[in-house]
């Protein structure tokens, strides 16, 4: 990789890591569109670009999640009993998500990502909290919820926070605990999704040098180094500042990125 590309990926990783810690997301909604731009500019095989962007994004969440959750855990905000109940379903769902993605062509996958991001941006812009009207479900319900979170996260390369955080707040979990617990859930999502993307991409033809399955290892290395550094900063900020205004700005950025992915779907 040339110096300009390394610098761009370092900046992207820093932004993704900060967003992950601040908003309880895995950063995939930022990373996937920008990775798509980078891989397109470097003339990667068109049919693999979106798959590789999603797979590489998901792999970075393993590192971002560990860094972010340490900062949240230090403040006692992670509900580990909730993590234990959701994790089994998440592991299964996060394996299935990339399998679904592998059955889709690049255009359909880009469209799926664009729809998911636009929905998430609307949720963030409106900042509507689900009415906290119930408790968390029993273990079978938590397993099912984890499965849904895992499938969606594995399919679009995100950390699952835009599903898990509203789910937990709807079940009377305080928002800071929900964000912190979502950060902890990012690791099993990323682990299962990464292994799945390696497995389903191993026999794909024409993948570029430096790929492991659908994962582009050089980008994974550079982005992870930067995101691990900034994720704790975002997590600390989340406990100090109201993030409502930041969420609105972030939502507008997401709309732009969703529009770009929609353009890629029809390009």
UniProtKB/TrEMBL annotation:
Record keyword Transmembrane present: yes
Species this chain originates from: Noviherbaspirillum album
Name of the protein this chain belongs to: Probable membrane transporter protein
UniProt similarity note: Belongs to the 4-toluene sulfonate uptake permease (TSUP) (TC 2.A.102) family.
InterPro entries: TM_pro_TauE-like
Primary residence: membrane
Transmembrane segments: 48-66, 78-96, 147-167, 179-202, 214-233, 245-263
Keyword check for Transmembrane: yes
Keywords (A to Z) from UniProt: Cell membrane, Membrane, Transmembrane, Transmembrane helix
Domain of life: Bacteria
Membrane topology: Multi-pass membrane protein
Compartments, as annotated in UniProt: Cell membrane; Membrane
């Amino acid at each position: 990789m040339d110096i300009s590309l390394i610098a761009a990926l370092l900046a992207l990783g820093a932004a993704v890591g900060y967003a992950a810690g601040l908003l309880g997301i895995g950063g995939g909604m930022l990373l996937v569109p920008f990775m798509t731009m980078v891989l397109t500019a470097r003339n990667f095989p068109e049919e693999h670009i979106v798959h590789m962007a999603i797979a590489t994004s998901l792999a970075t969440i393993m590192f971002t999640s560990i860094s972010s959750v340490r900062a949240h855990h230090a403040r006692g905000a992670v509900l580990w009993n909730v993590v234990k109940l959701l994790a089994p379903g998440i592991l299964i769902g996060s394996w299935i998500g990339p399998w679904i993605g592998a059955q889709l062509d690049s255009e359909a996958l880009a469209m799926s990502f664009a729809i998911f991001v636009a929905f998430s941006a609307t949720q963030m812009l409106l900042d509507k909290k689900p009415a906290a009207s119930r408790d968390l479900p029993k273990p079978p319900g938590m397993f099912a919820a984890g499965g849904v979170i895992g499938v969606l996260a594995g399919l679009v390369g995100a950390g699952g926070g835009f599903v898990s955080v509203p789910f937990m707040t709807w079940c009377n979990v305080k928002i800071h605990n929900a964000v912190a617990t979502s950060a902890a859930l990012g690791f099993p999502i990323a682990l299962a999704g990464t292994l799945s993307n390696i497995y389903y991409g191993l026999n794909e033809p024409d993948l570029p040098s430096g790929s492991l399955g659908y994962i582009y290892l050089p980008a994974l290395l550079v982005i992870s180094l930067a995101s691990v550094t900034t994720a704790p900063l975002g997590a600390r900020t989340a406990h100090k500042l109201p993030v409502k205004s930041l969420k609105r700005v972030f939502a507008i950025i997401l709309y732009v990125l969703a529009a770009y992915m929609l353009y890629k779907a029809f390009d």
